[in-house]
């Protein structure tokens, strides 16, 4: 019984780690995208 419980608990922490990793990856992608778009916007505004 205890072995099954610890195994389930390990799986939960693994899932949580995956969720955190996915969240961080999305945040980085959004930040890079925003930086690129901001650069394009500045160039576009300067041209106009």
UniProtKB/TrEMBL annotation:
<protein>
    <submittedName>
        <fullName>Conserved domain protein</fullName>
    </submittedName>
</protein>
<feature type="transmembrane region" description="Helical">
    <location>
        <begin position="20"/>
        <end position="38"/>
    </location>
</feature>
<keyword id="KW-0472">Membrane</keyword>
<keyword id="KW-0812">Transmembrane</keyword>
<keyword id="KW-1133">Transmembrane helix</keyword>
